[in-house]
Predict the 3D structure of the following.
Amino acid sequence: MRVRLILAFGLVALIPILAITVFARLGVARQVETYMTSGGMVGLDGLVTSLRDYYAANQTWEGADSLLQSMHGNPGRGMGGMMGQRLRLIDADRKVVYDTAGVQTAGTLIDGRELADAAQIRNARGRIIGYLWAEGGLGGNSGSGQRLVERLNNISLLSGAVALAIAMILALLLGSWIANPLQKLEKAANQMARGDLSQRVAVKGDDELAALGQSFNQMAQSLQESEARRQAMTADIAHELRTPLAVQRAQMEAMQDGIYPLDAAGLQVALDQNSLLSRLVEDLRILALADAKELRLEQTAVDLRQLAANVLSRFEPAGLDRSIRFSLEAAEIPAIRGDPLRIEQILTNLLANAVRYSPQGGVIRMAILHQGANVTLSVHDSGPGIPESVLPHLFERFYRADRSRSRDVGGSGLGLAIARQLAVLMGGSLSAANHPLGGAVFTLVLPVNA
């Protein structure tokens, strides 16, 4: 954009100046030449004009001597400079038509070299039709210089008008050149404001306007993806809430109608669905608070090694039925800065996910390392790993790689999304990848305690 503006202003300023310079130079040169060759320097330009008009009207110099005598002898006609001058009118064939001094008779041939100082008389087409030769006298009059000034002023005004016209045309063309991309952006933005998030603009070049277009397209893409996620999330929430509610209602109606006995076992089914709903609502509340940056964290110094060992010990009974083994590798590490309850929640989600995907007799390894200003904790399972198509969506809300998996096995689909949000809020990060030796590995990075 900056380059376009500089170029536009430069052209609007430079081209009219060049136009004025060239036009005025050519025009002034032409006018001065005309002035000099038509007798302006010796005050004969007015007489030359009269003689030219006479010839144009009569197509002959016959009778022009009377015109020459009347103007030569009448100082009241503005030709005072001619008093005492010898004037000779010579036709285009260099023959004398009239000599006011009577020295040369009509028809006398004049050498062409002698006519170099004579005023040329030209017709409307610029062809020489005669010469007016003056000798002696004052050699000028008070009006001849003024007439030259007027001619030059006219040239200046004409040059200015031409330059203004060129500047206006350039302004329109350059303005359109600059405004067209902005108009397209405005049109696309208006369409987006009406709800059409599929709008994109064509991007050409690498200037500021191109960067603006790219930013607009990225924003439109982000908005479209956010809207798609919002719609999907709304549908997922409705689905997640509807199923437990339906199970609860069916169980209670069955007990009410006497199909199922009203006993502790029947109530436990309804209570389990109620617990599932409570967990889902709590997860949604945590995500909403995290998105709004209103989730309160009790930031303290945390012994991550001890905290990880405690969480790991709680999962060991869950792995006994499938012979899953757990291991923790951690050297001496400094305390980290974070909320111990939220870090425990992150580790619980990661280990629950690892147990879910580990095969019979699998191994879940947890390792903690100190790297500069951060402490890194990794959870590596021996499961099948994460499909490459799933990795970009793994931390999205309600996302399940296997849509057919039951929610009792697969959870609500919010655990990993919550874990990443909590890690970010504590100044860290959470990522996932496939381990070179097989299985999935989740890496939690948290800052060391200041």
Observations:
- The chain is about 55% helix and 15% strand.
- The radius of gyration is 50 Å.
